[in-house]
């Protein structure tokens, strides 16, 4: 069975998509970010909990503060990307469940009254949403450079609060010169999929 998604879209979102390491100086607009969010917000999460939070780093002062927390290999590209997003998990997502999961508003207390349960659920579902976010960036014709090479606690203290856990930092923009490393190998279907 073939995919119903247009082959050009398959290429844009997956086959030709790579982690960008350089960007042009063309700005990423608020309208582009809004369009990305308006697309990816429909991706499913458990109980529709939607715990992903996005902090856009736009000002030079904030960028300088962020770069100080990046690993050596990620600092320069974070300093030069047109837009940087800090993706985090909101560990108090349950407060929104009466609105987001209206047919079972008791889910807030029935499943997520304990902080540890919320942190586990938020980490898993926000990571799922982070994947949607990266695909959404690609759908907007932009390149994404997701990274986990940074001081997580430093970024949390600098930009977030105790109720938010940083997941990744994503550089966003039009790809610049030599933006891509060579494509790394992927596992074959029969190395990943088992039928029982």
How does this model look, in words?
The structure is a single chain. Helix content is 43%, strand content 15%. With 196 residues, it is of the alpha+beta class. It has a four-stranded antiparallel β-sheet with strand order 1-2-4-3. Helix 2 (30-40) crosses helix 7 and helix 3 runs antiparallel to helix 4.
Write the layout of secondary structure elements.
Layout: H1 7-15, H2 30-40, E1 52-57, H3 60-67, H4 72-80, E2 83-90, H5 97-100, H6 107-112, H7 115-139, E3 143-147, H8 152-159, E4 164-173, H9 189-192
Antiparallel strand pairs: 1-2, 2-4, 3-4
Helix pairs in contact: 1-7, 2-7, 3-4
Summarize the structure.
This protein is of the alpha+beta class and 196 residues long.
Number of DSSP E strands: 4
Give average pLDDT, whole number: 96
What string gives the helices and strands in order? HHEHHEHHHEHEH
Helical/strand content category? alpha+beta
What's the arrangement of strands in the largest beta sheet? 1-2-4-3
Q: State the helical fraction.
A: 40-55%
* End-to-end CA span: 21 Å
Helix run count? 9
Question: Which word captures the global form?
Answer: globular
- Specify Rg, calculated over alpha carbons: 18 Å
Q: Which segments are poorly predicted (pLDDT under 50) over 5 or more consecutive residues?
A: none
This entry's quaternary arrangement is: single chain
User: What composes the largest sheet?
Assistant: 4 strands, antiparallel
Estimate what percentage of residues fall within beta strands. 5-15%
């Amino acid at each position: 069975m073939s995919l119903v998604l247009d082959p050009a879209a398959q290429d844009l979102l997956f086959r030709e998509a790579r982690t960008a390491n350089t960007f042009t100086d063309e700005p990423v607009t608020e309208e582009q970010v809004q369009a990305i969010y308006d697309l990816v917000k429909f991706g499913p999460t458990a109980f529709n909990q939607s715990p992903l939070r996005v902090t856009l780093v736009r000002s030079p002062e904030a960028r300088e503060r962020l770069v100080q927390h990046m690993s050596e290999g990620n600092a320069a590209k974070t300093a030069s990307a047109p837009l940087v997003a800090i993706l985090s998990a909101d560990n108090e997502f349950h407060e929104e469940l009466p609105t987001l999961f209206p047919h079972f508003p008791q889910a807030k207390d029935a499943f997520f009254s304990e902080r540890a349960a919320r942190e586990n659920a938020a980490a898993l579902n926000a990571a799922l949403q982070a994947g949607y976010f990266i695909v959404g960036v690609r759908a907007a014709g932009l390149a994404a450079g997701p990274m986990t090479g940074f001081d997580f606690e430093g970024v949390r203290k600098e930009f977030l609060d105790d109720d938010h856990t940083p997941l990744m930092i994503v550089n966003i923009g039009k790809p610049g010169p030599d933006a891509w490393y060579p494509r790394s190998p992927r596992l074959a279907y029969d190395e990943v999929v088992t039928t029982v």
